[in-house]
């Protein structure tokens, strides 16, 4: 769907900009610059402010990125449980380093803060769906689900 | 009223006062950094913390309202230690670059570091290594120096309604950035420079052109000619240790000759000329059904604003170039010819209270003399720096008059420097042109003062003309929205981008509060009143210019040299 139509749906919602941003991101995987500028117009705030909102929340991205967003927790419990090895496996499997996206636009790799599942570390999420007790071997299976 | 005790001194202050205000009342200065007297309270730097009896935590004096019986201590060991730590933390992210900084000697953070005896900072220095923004010819940003006080954002958004600056990201990653995180030139920035005044440190400043000037002066083959804008002299004294308005004009001229300028002329001359051209343009529009209301066009920050935010109203702008640019096109044609000087040898310098003038001079269309009309623009601050470097003792300088043919001026030109001044100057001339009668009183006092928007109806012998005056772009916006909606009752509108007009311009000595701007305005009307000629059409050298060269206002030559056209800026981020 066109970002203009998405934004229009939230135009009358109080504080609808954040919801519009989520909906845009569901569609595009990130917030395109034109969409932020359009949201500023629709919600009657300066573009500088809309950009401020878009960059304030770590779950919004203003940079183009892969469709399936894989996040790995970098907090202490996951770290101790071997998150490093999981990171290495993800990077090896996708052929990219953390913070980047695959050339085919299918995957993006990001660090995340704790996702609250410390009973089953290390934890990764793919498009916000958590995977528990992840090992390098499991990484291959998980990625295969989204290929 | 509320009774409070500050450091043992009892004082009664109005309800709603802050600790900071109450402390000021008893003569105690609480240190501040993010606080700005003309802006909303931000309370983000915490430098102003004080102890309040009964409170476990320290309170920010700038935001904490006083209450009945409040007992405040502003300098206990606990308070001093907290302030020192806060400063040390700020400094641990701040480049230790004071010696090379544009604000060396005039920096709030430097002052606080000195006052709080910061010596061995226990925190490791971690500078983010962000890139400088040198995208505009007028203003730079050095984000590494930013202390995140957000005063620039307030100036840009609230005072100017330009909203070119915002905060990106959060926490220790947050930074003040131009719209969409890009460069200033791609943002709606109008280069008014009010952010420079707001900045407590050297994170935003003017692009300095001092080296260019020094090179021109050192070159034996060039003839360096300067013009001085009306608002400069009043404030320049502040840069060289004098009170506002105390530097006499002819001592200023003498100082410039010492620096090596070959000829010293005056923008006031072309300010008077502007009145003749713009006044006649207004009359032409009134009588021939031209686009009304007509807007003044002297303020380049305002022109940038109109081109950015009101491109549909560009036809309302007077086609008159600003006095700086009129001067530029004449100095390399009329003046060079009259002085028997080859125009290609002339380096045309202007000394301006303005940062946007640097951008204006660099506009590609500003070359009607066949050359770049104005080669170098220096701000009042830059000329102040040159004067300090020169070692001149201004109390001992022999006064020197302006050079001829573009140096004479009237009081009408002087008041261009204050909000309402162009309007008053125009009315002095338009009244006499229309009514063919001499004004009994040249003072149009409705046009004076710091009020945001002023208006009046002027009776020109039966013809009623409604006029309005606005300073700051947020006030301009109110009048523009009226025009856009087709509801403007006015015929003529004066807009100045900066608070108080040019006396509060982005290139003036760093101005921490509007009270200083109001003081400068007072000095400008004193100068006007002291002059023998106070109407632009009485300027003898302007008369010679029309007799010998231009022949008539709005004539062929005028259109070629003194008038311009405007372009919509089409900023992607709007």
Automatic annotation (TrEMBL), chain A:
It comes from the Bacteria. Its cofactor is [2Fe-2S] cluster. Signal peptide: none annotated. One of its GO terms (molecular function) is metal ion binding. It holds the Pfam family 2Fe-2S_thioredx. [2Fe-2S] cluster binds at residues 73, 78, 114, 118. The keyword Isomerase does not apply. Keywords: 2Fe-2S, Iron, Iron-sulfur, Metal-binding. Binds 1 [2Fe-2S] cluster. InterPro entries: NADP_DH_HndA-like (IPR028431), NuoE-like (IPR002023), NuoE_dom (IPR042128), NuoE_N (IPR041921), Thioredoxin-like_sf (IPR036249). SUPFAM superfamilies: Thioredoxin-like. Belongs to the complex I 24 kDa subunit family. This is NADH-quinone oxidoreductase subunit E-like. It comes from Syntrophomonas zehnderi OL-4.
UniProtKB/TrEMBL annotation, chain B:
SMART domains: Fe_hyd_SSU (SM00902), NADH-G_4Fe-4S_3 (SM00929). GO terms for biological process: ATP synthesis coupled electron transport. Keywords: 2Fe-2S, 4Fe-4S, Iron, Iron-sulfur, Metal-binding, Oxidoreductase, Repeat. Residues 1-78 form the 2Fe-2S ferredoxin-type domain. Residues 78-117 form the 4Fe-4S His(Cys)3-ligated-type domain. CDD domains: fer2. One of its GO terms (molecular function) is NADH dehydrogenase (ubiquinone) activity. Its cofactor is [4Fe-4S] cluster. The keyword Transit peptide does not apply. GO terms for cellular component: membrane. Residues 137-167, 181-210 form the 4Fe-4S ferredoxin-type domain. It holds the Pfam family Fe_hyd_SSU. PROSITE patterns: 2FE2S_FER_2 (PS51085), 4FE4S_FER_1 (PS00198), 4FE4S_FER_2 (PS51379), 4FE4S_HC3 (PS51839), COMPLEX1_75K_1 (PS00641). The keyword 4Fe-4S applies. This is Iron hydrogenase.
């Amino acid at each position: 769907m066109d970002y203009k139509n998405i934004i229009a749906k939230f135009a009358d919602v109080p504080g609808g900009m954040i919801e519009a941003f989520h909906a845009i991101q569901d569609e595009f995987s990130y917030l395109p610059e034109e969409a932020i500028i359009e949201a500023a117009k629709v919600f009657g705030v300066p573009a500088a402010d809309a950009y401020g909102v878009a960059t304030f929340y770590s779950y919004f991205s203003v940079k183009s990125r892969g469709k399936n967003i894989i996040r790995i927790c970098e907090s202490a419990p996951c770290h101790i449980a071997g998150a490093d090895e999981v990171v290495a496996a993800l990077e090896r499997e996708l052929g990219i380093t953390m913070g980047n996206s695959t050339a085919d636009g299918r995957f993006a790799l990001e660090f995340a803060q704790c996702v609250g599942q410390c009973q089953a570390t290390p934890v990764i999420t793919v498009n916000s769906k958590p995977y528990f007790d992840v090992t390098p071997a499991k990484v291959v299976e998980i990625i295969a689900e989204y290929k | 009223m509320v009774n409070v005790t500050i450091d043992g001194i009892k004082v009664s202050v109005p309800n709603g006062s802050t600790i900071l205000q109450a402390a000021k009342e008893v003569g105690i200065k609480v240190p501040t950094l993010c606080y700005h007297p003309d802006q909303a309270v931000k309370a983000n730097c915490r430098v102003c913390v004080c102890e309040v009896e009964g409170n476990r935590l320290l309170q920010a004096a700038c935001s904490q309202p006083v209450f009945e019986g409040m007992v405040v201590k502003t300098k206990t060991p606990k308070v001093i230690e907290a302030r020192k730590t806060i400063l040390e933390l700020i400094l641990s992210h701040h480049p230790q670059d004071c010696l090379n900084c544009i604000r060396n000697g005039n920096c709030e953070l430097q002052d606080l570091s000195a006052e709080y005896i910061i010596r061995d900072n226990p925190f490791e220095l971690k500078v983010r290594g962000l890139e400088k923004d040198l995208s505009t010819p007028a203003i730079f940003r050095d984000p590494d120096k930013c202390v995140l006080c957000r005063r620039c954002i307030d100036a840009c958004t609230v005072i100017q309604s330009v909203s070119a600056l915002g905060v990106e990201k959060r926490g220790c990653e947050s930074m003040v950035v131009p719209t969409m995180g890009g460069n200033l030139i791609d943002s709606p920035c109008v280069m008014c420079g009010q952010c420079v005044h707001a900045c407590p440190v050297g994170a935003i400043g003017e692009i300095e052109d001092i080296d260019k000037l020094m090179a021109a002066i050192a070159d034996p083959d060039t003839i360096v000619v300067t013009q001085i804008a009306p608002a400069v002299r009043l404030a320049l004294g502040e840069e060289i240790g004098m009170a506002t308005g105390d530097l006499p004009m002819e001592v200023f001229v003498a100082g410039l000759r010492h620096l090596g300028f070959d000829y010293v002329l005056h923008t006031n001359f072309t300010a008077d000329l502007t009145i003749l051209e713009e006044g006649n343009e207004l009359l032409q529009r009134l009588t021939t059904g031209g686009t009304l209301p007509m807007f003044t066009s002297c303020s380049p920050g305002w022109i940038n604003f109109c081109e950015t935010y009101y491109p549909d109203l560009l036809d309302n702008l007077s086609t008159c170039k600003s006095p700086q640019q009129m001067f530029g096109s004449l100095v390399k044609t009329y003046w060079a010819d009259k002085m028997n000087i080859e125009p290609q040898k002339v380096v045309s310098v202007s000394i301006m209270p303005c940062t946007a003038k640097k951008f204006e001079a660099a506009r590609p269309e500003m070359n009607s003399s066949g050359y770049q009309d104005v080669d170098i623009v220096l701000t009042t601050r830059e000329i102040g720096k040159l004067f300090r470097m020169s070692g001149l003792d201004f109390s001992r300088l022999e006064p020197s008059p302006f050079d001829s043919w573009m140096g004479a001026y009237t009081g009408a030109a002087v008041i261009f420097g204050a909000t309402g001044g162009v309007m008053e100057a125009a009315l002095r001339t338009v009244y006499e042109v229309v009514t063919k009668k001499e004004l009994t009183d040249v003072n149009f006092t409705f046009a004076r003062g710091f009020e945001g928007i002023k208006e009046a109806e002027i009776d020109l012998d039966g013809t009623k003309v409604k006029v309005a005056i606005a300073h700051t772009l947020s006030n301009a916006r109110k009048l523009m929205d009226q025009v856009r909606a087709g509801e403007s009752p006015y015929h003529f509108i004066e807009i100045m981008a900066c608070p108080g007009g040019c006396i509060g311009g982005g290139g003036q000595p760093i101005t921490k509060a509007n009270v200083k701007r109001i003081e400068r305005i007072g000095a400008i009307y004193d100068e006007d009143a002291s002059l023998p000629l106070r109407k632009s059409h009485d300027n003898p050298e302007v008369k010679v210019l029309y007799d010998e060269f231009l022949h008539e206002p709005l004539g062929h030559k005028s259109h070629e040299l003194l008038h311009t056209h405007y372009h919509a800026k089409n900023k992607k981020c709007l």
